[in-house]
Amino acid sequence: MTGPLLELDKVALHFGGLAAISDLSISVNAGEVLAVIGPNGAGKTSMLNLVTRVFEATKGRILFKGQDIARAPRSKIAHLGIARTFQNIELFDAASVLDNLLLGRHRFGAGAWWQQVLRTPGLTRREEDHRAKVETVIEFLDLSAWRNARVASLPYGVRKVVELGRALCSEPEILFLDEPASGLNPEETRDLAFWIDDIRTDLGITVVMIEHDMSLVSAVADRVVCMAQGRVLAQGTSAEVQAHPDVISAYLGT
Ligand SMILES: Nc1ncnc2c1ncn2[C@@H]1O[C@H](COP(=O)(O)OP(=O)(O)OP(=O)(O)O)[C@@H](O)[C@H]1O
C-alpha cells in the first residue's frame, strides 16, 4: 500500500451551529504511534468518533487504506480492522474478563445458526480459535489473575487494561486509544507505555492515542498532532509541538 494508512481530508463536523471540527486534515502512517493532544474541547474525541462512525462527517473524506469510510455503516468499522477504547470505559460490568474479551472477537462471527444448533466441527474449531486468541491477549497484558473475575469487581486500572485487551482481541490494523492514561497511577502509566510500544512493535498495530499526559506522549509517540478549535494547530515530534508558540498559547488560553 502506498500513502497513509488513514487520512482525514478536510473533514468537518457541525452540531447545529457549533463547528466541533473544521477543515481537519490528519494523516496516520502504517506502523506509527501518533499522539493527538490539545486543550479541552479541541475536537479530539469528535475526530475519533468520526473515524469510528459514532458521528457522520458534515464534510470531507476519511480514507482508510484508500477507501472512503466517512459514510460507511458503523457496523462495518470493526470489520475493516479499526478498533478503539473509550474515555469512559465501556465494558459489560456484570460479565467476566474472559467473556468481555471474547466479545472482542465478534467481528469474526459466531457461526451460522445451524452450526450452533448442530455444534458442527467447523463451529467448534472457530470457538477454539477465538479462545486461543483471547488467551494470547490475556498473556500479553498480564491479565491471567483476573480471567474469571467480574469486571465490576476490578480496580479501575485493570478495567482499562481489559478494555485495551478487548480491542486487541479484534486483531485491528489501527487502534485508537481515548485518554488511555487518565485515572491511572504512575506505575500503571509506565506499564501502559511498554504495552503501547509492544502493540506497535510486536503486534504490528498502528496506534492513534488521544492523551493529555505528556510524559506518556513523549515516551511512546513517534509524532504528535496538536488540535485546537477543531483544527490542526501544530504537528511534529513531541518536543517540537510542546515548544510551538501557538500550542503554548492554546493551552494558556491566550
Ligand atoms: N454530541 C455532541 N453534541 C454537541 N456538541 C458536542 C458533542 N460532542 C462534542 N461536542 C462539542 O464539540 C466540541 C469538541 O468536543 P470534543 O469532546 O471532541 O473535544 P476534546 O478535544 O475531546 O475534549 P476533551 O479533551 O475535554 O475530551 C466541544 O465544544 C464539545 O462541547
Automatic annotation (TrEMBL):
<dbReference type="Pfam" id="PF00005">
    <property type="entry name" value="ABC_tran"/>
</dbReference>
<dbReference type="InterPro" id="IPR003593">
    <property type="entry name" value="AAA+_ATPase"/>
</dbReference>
<protein>
    <submittedName>
        <fullName>ABC transporter ATP-binding protein</fullName>
    </submittedName>
</protein>
<feature type="domain" description="ABC transporter">
    <location>
        <begin position="6"/>
        <end position="254"/>
    </location>
</feature>
<dbReference type="InterPro" id="IPR051120">
    <property type="entry name" value="ABC_AA/LPS_Transport"/>
</dbReference>
<dbReference type="GO" id="GO:0005524">
    <property type="term" value="F:ATP binding"/>
</dbReference>
<dbReference type="InterPro" id="IPR027417">
    <property type="entry name" value="P-loop_NTPase"/>
</dbReference>
<dbReference type="InterPro" id="IPR003439">
    <property type="entry name" value="ABC_transporter-like_ATP-bd"/>
</dbReference>
<keyword id="KW-0067">ATP-binding</keyword>
<dbReference type="InterPro" id="IPR032823">
    <property type="entry name" value="BCA_ABC_TP_C"/>
</dbReference>
<keyword id="KW-0547">Nucleotide-binding</keyword>
<dbReference type="Pfam" id="PF12399">
    <property type="entry name" value="BCA_ABC_TP_C"/>
</dbReference>
<keyword id="KW-0813">Transport</keyword>
